[in-house]
Amino acid sequence: MIRIGLGMLTVVLALSLFLAPAPATAQTSTMGDTRAWVKKYDRNHDGKLDRDEFYQAVVDAFFLRDKDKDGYLAMSELTEASPEALRAVKHKDSARISLQEYINALFKDFDAADTDGDGLLTVEEIERYRQTVR
User: Average pLDDT of each block of 10 consecutive residues along the chain (134 residues)?
Assistant: First the structure.
């Protein structure tokens, strides 16, 4: 059965994990993980992720998760994923999504997390979004 965002998050799994709901007991450690993840993809070092930086994080996450390297993510490869990624795969007969479908799903999460509408994600916005989708 799919667990929507329970468990520890790691830096390398990109925003699909950081936008997944956070367990209440891991709030302190996930804030540090989120900061490290943002820093990893923040090419201009402004402490935020713009849409291009986010895009790179999503692509990296896709290929990291695509364990069988078939160019698709199946439900089994989305054990911890954002709500939009799970919705995208659940609405398909094949129960798998392509890179473009994954990107589209996660940009919906980006827009939902970007509460001030400036086109940038801060650590605080990511953490706030994770709490709201729990």
Answer: 30 44 48 92 98 96 93 83 77 85 92 97 94 78
Question: CA end-to-end span of the chain, whole Å?
Answer: 17
Of 41, 7, 65, nearest to 123 (Cα)? 41
User: Buried b vs exposed e over 113-123: b needs ≥16 C-beta within 10 Å?
Assistant: bbeeeeebbbb
Model pTM score: 0.75
What's 22's domain CATH number?
1.10.238
| Structural domain includes residue 38 | yes
Do the Cβ atoms of 107 and 121 come closer than 8 Å? no
Give the pLDDT score at 134: 64
- Residue 123 lies in domain: 11-132
